[in-house]
């Protein structure tokens, strides 16, 4: 998949923890929705080509296991969970080796390749966002059956929800399939369509009891490895148009965050975009102690940004936890 790095999450960790610890008290669980940036292995258990349960994925994961994470090691929700004193690895909901006792302190419903738009999930036959919500409803039923209503409601209300999704809607759907462009003649119309879907999704989570949500915007998608690789006439530089779309869409997400925080009582929704930081790392890697790669390859998933984050993440988390 094109969205194969998680740096925007890694550089939001400090923001997320500061927000959650200072304003939200104890967090009993981390609950995750989204795409490949946060999928901890759900796609292993569905018939799709969008999988990462093979080498070199997982090279830096404990015991070098390729778990289905689109990463060389753990992904950002894992580190966030550990920073809250919870388990260091958030399990995939569809993984049969885990049960509701494991999921009570953290669970991932994300599916690589999905998007806000249901048609995006159809591109490579992955879990659509509405189905992730259905899995979440099933999860709530299991919580109540095993821990009782009072404990279950406490977990649902006090958990920190992480959402990272949206890039595939543009790169795997709108810009790839002409029929979507016929339905939404301008990219701005499609952005507004996605914002409507995002609002519906967030309101549904609120109605289901979620109160603390971090919503990630999309990264500078014109700088993703595949986009740079195919930008031959641009000497493999970032595709500015895609980045402009990302900025425009993120601004609309920010507007939505403000709107919902005003309208929904007790809702604490955070705009966790780190577009600028990601762009700095991609365009000026030496500032972050890394060398620019001579070529960009998607096969090994060891992108520059992942290498930078690998060296920085433990230090950043330790600094946060010491505060």
UniProtKB/TrEMBL annotation:
Family in the record: Belongs to the 'GDSL' lipolytic enzyme family.
Protein name per its UniProtKB record: SGNH hydrolase-type esterase domain-containing protein
MF annotations from Gene Ontology: hydrolase activity, acting on ester bonds
Source taxon at top rank: Eukaryota
Native species: Trifolium subterraneum
Signal sequence, renumbered to the chain: 1-24
Keywords: Signal
Pfam entry (one): Lipase_GDSL
InterPro entries: GDSL, GDSL_lipolytic_enzyme, SGNH_hydro_sf, SGNH_plant_lipase-like
């Amino acid at each position: 998949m094109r969205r194969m790095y998680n740096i925007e999450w890694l550089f939001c960790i400090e923001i997320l923890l500061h927000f959650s610890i200072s304003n939200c008290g104890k967090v009993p669980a981390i609950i995750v929705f989204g795409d490949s940036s946060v999928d901890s292995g759900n796609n292993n258990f569905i018939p799709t080509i969008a999988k990462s349960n093979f080498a070199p994925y997982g090279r830096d994961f404990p015991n070098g296991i390729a778990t289905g994470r689109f990463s060389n090691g753990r992904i950002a929700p894992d580190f966030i969970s550990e920073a809250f004193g919870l388990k260091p690895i958030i399990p995939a909901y569809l993984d049969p080796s885990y049960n509701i006792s494991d999921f009570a302190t953290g669970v991932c419903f994300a599916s690589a390749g999905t998007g806000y738009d249901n048609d995006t999930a159809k591109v490579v036959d992955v879990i659509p966002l509405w189905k992730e919500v259905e899995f979440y409803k099933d999860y709530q039923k299991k919580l109540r059956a095993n821990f009782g209503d009072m404990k279950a409601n406490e977990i649902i209300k006090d958990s920190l929800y992480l959402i990272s999704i949206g890039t595939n809607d543009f790169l795997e759907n709108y810009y790839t399939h002409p029929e979507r462009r016929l339905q939404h003649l301008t990219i701005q119309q499609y952005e507004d369509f996605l914002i409507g879907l995002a609002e519906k999704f967030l309101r549904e989570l609120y109605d289901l009891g979620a109160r603390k949500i971090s919503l990630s915007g999309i990264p500078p998608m014109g700088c993703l490895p595949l986009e740079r690789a195919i930008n031959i006439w641009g000497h493999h530089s970032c595709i500015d148009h895609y980045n402009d779309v990302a900025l425009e869409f993120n601004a609309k997400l920010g507007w939505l965050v403000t709107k919902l925080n005003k309208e929904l009582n007790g809702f604490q929704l955070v705009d966790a975009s780190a577009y600028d930081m990601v762009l700095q790392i991609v365009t000026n890697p030496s500032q972050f102690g890394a060398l620019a790669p001579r070529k960009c390859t998607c096969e090994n998933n060891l992108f520059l940004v992942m290498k930078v984050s690998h060296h920085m993440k433990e230090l950043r988390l330790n600094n946060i936890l010491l505060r």
